[in-house]
Amino acid sequence: MAFKNRLFLALLFPFLSFSQIGGKYVYQFLNLANAPRQAALGGKLVTQYDYDVTQFFTNPAAINEDMHNKPVLNYGSYFGEATYGTAAYAHTWDRRTQTIAAGIQYINYGTFDGRDELGNQTAEFTGSEAALTVGYAYNIPWTNLYVGSNAKFISSNLEQYSSWGIAADVGLMYKDEVNDIHYGLSFRNIGFQIKPYADLRENLPFAIDAGISQSLEHVPIRWHLTLENLQQWNIGFSNPNRAQESFEGEVTEEKVSFLNNAFRHVIVGVELFPEKGFNIRVGYNFRRSQELKILEQRTFAGISLGFGLRLGKLKFNYSYSRYTLAANTNLFGVMINLNE
Fold this sequence. Notes:
Helices cover 9% and strands 45% of the residues. By secondary structure, the protein is mostly beta strands.
């Protein structure tokens, strides 16, 4: 399959933050933060059980009756001309956890100048991907354990090539109501390409994420700890830009220690005033920080910030995620409470 060179560059840059894990799989847009709240708290959240319907994208066990009739729209730019967003809605039929959530994720890579193998200009082309997701959760009777699953239909169009596939998510969540602690476990993107771009079928970005979060008793704070990509222990890689050359000309590659690799699985986040009309959120993604840092220069890669503001029926959310000195993302969202 002969993709245009500029298409390769356009698709490579947005996924720098996924490093080698990102380079192995197709439909990588499924790993993007799906809402400002997620993005502000580090990019992934599998333990939140409340009104926010977008939580079901990362853990379907989070689907609950508090999400009923509260549609959400999110939109943001992702480096250059690429834009992406999500929309989600949940409906409850009765009070016995009969809630179904549905949503769509999409990314548009913009318009590019086509070039042939000799560099001559051809027709312009575009690229976009989308996934339609439907999920359901169930509370196991007489327990605080919740299980949920999502079904996904995925479509991708890149220049003249197209592909589509199916996938599923499975999630678990346990609520310790006495100590207000949530434990979450999610298996995402279990599926395959039905129609590949050409003759070769590629793997989907399967991921196992786990987390714990707690609201403090006397302080208006909820902290979050997420362990991502547990399906693969070694996610560190040697960055060639950090190789050191001796006076004799010998090149020593960067070494990723056991502890450094372990921390690359960790995301931490803090939400201030989580139950109030105004929330402040701060997150830190260790893997993003390590992979995108620049030696001898502070870039604050890995840090994310955001807030939520409720005005009547509307809840506005915003996040700012730091990647490099030249590349940051902003995500905006609004939730409408149609029950009021």
